[in-house]
Design goal:
By secondary structure, this protein is of the alpha/beta class. It is built from eight helices and five strands; from the N terminus they run E-H-E-H-H-E-H-H-E-H-H-E-H. It is about 55% helix and about 15% strand. It is globular. The relative contact order is 0.20. The mean pLDDT is about 95. It catalyses: dTMP + ATP = dTDP + ADP.
Amino acid sequence: MSKGFLVSLEGPEGAGKTSVLEALLPILEEKGVEVLTTREPGGVLIGEKIRQVILDPSHTQMDPKTELLLYIASRRQHLVEKVLPALEAGKLVIMDRFIDSSVAYQGFGRGLDIDAIDWLNRFATDGLKPDLTLYFDIEVEEGLARIAANSDREVNRLDLEGLDLHKKVRQGYLSLLDKEGNRIAKIDASLPLDQVVETTKAVLFDRMGLAK
């Protein structure tokens, strides 16, 4: 049993997860919370190399099952090398994407079998799930418009997908929210950043038992 607290950040493209996290970190540090932030795919050397393969805009011929298995491989390495040791050390671990991304993107988005994805997730994580998942919800068109307006953000292979896939991904997240509402908290990411940060802080502090 881990001693730390695991939080995953999820949402469609352009939901602003990174901006919210950057604003939250100083607040958590002021509270004396020891935080490790990391991302999927990536987080460790092997994971980052797999990330480069997955998100390379030139890899448009990648089969959906290949894509899924690469994500799963990166997830396993990242977990054993970085996430689990941090949890055992009692840290708050905040992950930018985790198991729900595979269900939303490869399951709903690509049309792969959800049961197979659930099995692969359990296989890769030994059944570990986040203590809390913060789902940043935004209309697909608005999220993609944010990406187009942000010249500093990397444009990866998934950003180049058609609108239909991104809409399926959002529906996947909403389906997960209906199914696992106790674990997943919905945040309205269309609001101004300061309001999104305050809402996220309130939910996180409540779940962790931190004084506001």
